[in-house]
Protein 1
Amino acid sequence: MKTRKLATVFFSLFWIISVTSTVLASTLEDIMQRGVLRVAAQTQGPPFSFVNGKGERTGSAVELARLMAKEMGVKIKFLNYDWDGLIPALLSGKADILAADMTPTLARAMKIAFTTPFMYTGNVAFAKKDSPYRTLADLKAAKNLTVATLLGSAGTKVAAETFPNAKQKVYKGGGPFLIDAVLKGRTDFAVNDSSAVYAQVSNFPPNSIKIIPERIDKSPLAYAVRYDSPALLSWMDLFFLHIKLDGRLDANLDYWVNSLDWKNDHD
Amino acid sequence: MLETFNFRVIIEYLPLFQEGFLYTIWLSLAALLGALIIGILACIMRISQSKLSARIAIIYIESMRSTPLLVQLYFFYFGLPSLGILLSEVVTGILVLSLNSGAYLAEIIRAGVQSIPPGQTEAGIASGMTYYQRMRYIIMPQALGLTVPPMLGQAIILVKDSSLLSLISIMELTRAGQTFTSERFMPAEAFLTTAVFYLIIFYLLKGFSIWSQKKLIYTG
């Protein structure tokens, strides 16, 4: 009986100490103490984060995160998740930052804190090459279509608003699943972020997919931290300002996102 | 910890969970029926005197039991279309679950059949009964009764396995939890609610198991 009481007191003390100590230390200090920046990233999201032909992890977000760790003077550790697992991983404290091509929607911002956007993009619709639909207006007017989107992506909501007549099929995983679904005829068309679509289509047979060039919406992309990491957030904002001014951000985006240059080096 | 647990949002998502709950039950029942048919057929083939059909049944049972369900699901969903066979999500899901569970049920039923003393088969032969008659009137009624508890155990496993169908865009219980998480970023609320619904299915099956053991087991 006595040992049980003692154990209870001991564990409550331990709990209080661990809780208060996490409140006192900032995430930025934790990173410095640990010497490792833990980054939640996806594996199936070229050009932002993927594994190349040699089995190495790379992409725009991966390289920017590496640059971030270098500027911090710490090592980097990437944690792999499906798209819909990124935010839970950040919230549960498994990762310090979330580095992906994520749109800072107001819904997401209820839970996580976004940096200032590092670029602007938008969702596009795409279908099979021989599909009769050539414009967004065609897709909006058509009845009984199925639209595929990615679980947890901004495209799910955008597609529901833009194509109210279409039935949604929500895939879990990464953007390539959507292209596969379109090619196999599991869906009439799909909606996803344009930079991701253009990069990922290049991995499939040429001229099999038709991307409707018209953007459905305009949206920013940003990295994220938890709301309990204000110091880390302001450091990251400053980091983006610096690399924007010294040209390293544009060099990264021009290589990875605004062109298919990376395809030659990473197949 | 509990003060940040958001019951209001859970209530908001209850209609979605209800939809997933009913869909999980529907899929599981359909797959269970399929598994039962496949299981009985595979068991009969497995214990038949024909070497060929026994060999086919062994290959089926062993290949299903030795590979992960997720791999089977991905093969049927992503692999088969490349070979020219395109099945819808729901058909793929029910088919894979039936085939997978059918292999386990075949072995469960076989254990039941083999637990019937050989004297009864011999008595059947002595009475001039055919193979079919012996199976239909002597062996199966006893064997199936004995195997009800392990079969319900397998049914519970099947219900839990149906959560994998969320990976091929089927809107069942686990997908309801995933959707909740991806819209509100509340994994604790989402998956705890999901678990509670699975628990409800478990208790329904358990109740049926207790009832059926009283009713169905042939006690002589």
Protein 2
Amino acid sequence: MSTGLALLIAAVAMLVGILAGRAAPRVWLVAMLVGVSAAFVAALAVLGGAADWDWRGGFALGGELPHLRLDGLSALFLVLLCVVGGVATVYLREYWPEQEHPRSAGSGRMWWGVMLLCLGLLLLVSNGLHFLIAWELFTLSAYFLITLNRQRREVRAAGWLYLAASHASVLALFAFFTLLAVATGSWDLGPLRDRTELAPLFWLSLFGFGLKAGLFPLHLWLPSAHANAPSHVSAMLSGVTLKMGIYGLLRFSGWLPVPVGAGWVVAVLGVVSAVLGVAFALGQHDLKRLLAYHSVENIGIILIGVGFALVAVEQGDAAWGRLALAGGLLHVWNHGLFKALLFLGAGSVLHATGTREMSRLGGLWRTMPWTAGLFALGAVAISGLPPLNGFVSEWLVFLGLFDATLSRGPSAWAAIPAVILLGVTGALALACFVKVCGVVFLGAARSQAAAHAHECGPAMRGAMLVLAAACVAIGLAPIVFWPAIARATRAWHPGWSGLDPPAPLAALGLAHLALAAVATIAAWGLWRRVRIRGFKRALTWDCGYAAPTARMQYTAGSFAGVITEWFAFILRPERHEHRPDELFPVSASRTEHTPETVLERVVEPVGRIVMRVSRTVRRLQHGRVQSYVFYILVVLAALIAWVFMGGAR
Amino acid sequence: MNSNLNLLIGLAMGLNLLALGSSRLPTLIRAMSAQGVILGAMPVLMDHEPDWRVALVALATIAGKGLVIPGLLRRAMRTVQIDRELEPLIGFVPSMLLGAGGAIAALALTHLLPLLPEHAGSLLVPGALATMLTGFILLIGRTKAISQVCGYLILENGIYLFGLLLIKAMPLMVEAGVLLDVTVGVFIIGIIVDRIQRAFDSLDTRKLTALRE
């Protein structure tokens, strides 16, 4: 089956799905799965070695001839889109059914189809105008998906913030594509690496795509949108749509020349996003908001890889640049997989208990063993622990950075702090997920809802299993996935052809296999011992309290308290405490809340100033003719004065 | 000749002050129309050899500004039964002071302007500036639509005075065009006056602010 035919089938199936979405859920499900699988086949074929697919239509669409192309880079992202999109489609059937959400289920299915189709189109189009159209459509469909549950006020606020931020991003992209079209004389996109005068456009694309990807200072829309969207939408937003920002950045830094120093900027932004993303995640008490901040962190890790690759290109030093880029690209997949898994897991917790507040959860592993196990697996993967996929990609980035320290020049000096901070990020992520798993799944239930939780159904469980299996597969056999990464690397920079897998990659796979085998055997042994000998229940040491309650457990805030203290300079947590002050204290309390610092301390004050100035200026427009004539007179007088001052010369 | 002209312009500037200082609308209209007649006669006095076209324009100006427009305004005034500006935004004495100050400032300003030597001694330029300023003050300071029309017309008189500087260079057609503009403007305002009167039962333009959005 040729690539073009597969993509045509995918498009037709998606259209059928969109049309059937409202009325016929079964037809919709089948059509979506067919579409996703067909696109998956096409993308795999290209990654597996088939020629790039290039197609030009003979008819004008919006005044431009359509031009689609599927090369290694877009195929890499298309694979991720198909896997996460397909899995989340299955999940959503059970998570957002007609019975529980009669008002929004139908439109949710339809917009879901629109978003998947537009994301796919975005990856294929090779025309600036059509790129903008696809981008805008996917932004809008994501908005309708985020606000599916729009009866709630915070959901509407989150949707509005998302829409506003997306518009800022689209504005930058409009400028980017228009200036590009003016400079080249055509909206058609393609490699233009020798047109060095186009280099400054990179900054526009960095802002536009960076806002969408959720770079640190531009992430302000991300936490609330991810937290308030339905969980399958959060999985898609975090797993795939953030990556569209990365895709755009990579696509156009590969096709167009980049200005000097761009790589450094991207790498610094990456490091900042990684460290601060995880620091903010530690301060969160809302499960999904915490996961959303981890997206900022992982986008940072990807950008470290991309940034150092750009530096390597600038310095003509290919070897370590390739490794860093390969790590970044593989992390695109990995983050998409484990973050989608974690969001789906958070979704089934939310589905079972009705709350995202970690302080109301606890002890869920007893009632939800599947969710707990799969979430823990995702947590291990995102923390970058062997033998799972997170370790593989972070390790590739590390390899690139290590090689960079051995090279000469400033990149060596820059790579050392980057390595250290990347290591810090991994450690903090581990701490954060220990906190999440400990508070949510272990211990005792902190509320009635958590005590009466129930395991999710087969569709949701199956969806999570597929993602977990993909995480394990990349972790255990990374060498299998190397050709795909190499293909994408070549599409980004044609000079980096003939990529052999780095020697330690195969060894890493073997080590992972061995580790996994040892862990499995150990677990099996333990399980057998428990089965044979049984176990005794006893009280843990309870500080002398006769009747400990669930409220005496460590809270999410106390787990992370030490670390959030280190980052208090940027997190600016709001604390209210009433310490016990007598021998027999009557009451004591302490609450802690980490605000959206960038939004609340930077953007909102600036917005308020703008509003105040605008309101003052608006007073000039009041409808009194007399004053309007007065304005004319004042301006005339000012002009006369200006002429006499000699300003006209 | 120059002294004759200056006398007329001085008269026109005096009429400015009269227009600014009177609270009665008939006085305002009378001052405005008298100014129009004076200005209309000026081209004939300025021109050395008599030209029938100049005479025609002078006649048209006198007829238009001195008779037709004031007549229309008086009729409008009668139909809406208003003959006083009761609550000006800028009081009558302050507006007179402003107008006088403006005239002095215009005289001072004229010395700074790079004028042709034959215009240096005449009151044409300061007279034009002062008259335009008077028009502006009336526009800014009065609330009744009829006073505003008078303000526009006095403003136009000022522009006309400036035009006299260029009477040899500027085709008279342009002047006729300005006059036509103002006439059309007056007609439109006449219609609006009628509408305001019917819709709001008042001629107060401040009540138009309800229409701003």
